[in-house]
Design a protein that fits this description.
Length: about 290
Amino acid sequence: MKPITKQSDKKTAFTIIELLTVMSIIIILIGLLVPSLNMVKRYAKEVRQKAQFHSIESAMELFSGEWDGYPPSSAMDEAPTPDNYCGAMKLCEALVGQDLMGFNPLSRFRADCSINTSDKIYDNPPVGAVLYPNTTDNLKARKTYLQQTSDAYKLWHLYGKGNTDVFNEELYVLCDVYNRVKHKVTGKGIGMPILYYKANTLNIKHDPNGTFPTAAGDNGYIYNYLDNDELVHLGPAGVTHPLDGTGTNFYEITQDKRISIDTGRPYRPDSYILISAGFDGMYGTDDDVFNFEK
């Protein structure tokens, strides 16, 4: 007769060494995977940003076709009493209106939403203003060129009350898709303002080493870096954007290096430039997104 072998009651289990080995392998794989996931995330955001720019460009062509030109981008509104009202804000007004109810054809692109000493054409600012000539006719005349009003936020939504320096904090800007800022009321992630610069097609200069435009004149430059310079100053204490300051960085990153002439040549010399601060939320760094391909 065959002997009966008694089965052991001892259960098979992993040893500490085996568990540590498996955990180490998992950690290594995660370490290899995370950078790839971050790259995919950044690429997806860049695609979304370019899609947003495409929507803005389509809206700008509609605006230009109807009003024979793109909206202005100068840093101030018009004389005789100019207020700080930069390119990013004028872009927003042109496409969705200063109160998000559409662009008013009577607009003179003024920060106080006026067309003379008394008549207001937008309800923002000041909130509650009597619209000219009356609310019904005013709203009937409005034109909305961009449907994504969800991308528009007041300056104080981004920077907080009392932190908008030379600007009226009630003014709107269009923001990019990167959600680098927390809305000061809702806490929702919102983007940085999209910078807008209109080309002066009468000029020929775009020299990073030249004498830059000043408040008194553009010195022959196609683009004026001052159009959004005060807006680039805004931000948390201690944060300085590389685009902030002298203008060198702006003319360097927007210069078309394929063209070699003494005065320099920008991308899109006959229209306008849009700039998103990109993934890092800083203007003037390598991950900035433009409405042109370098």
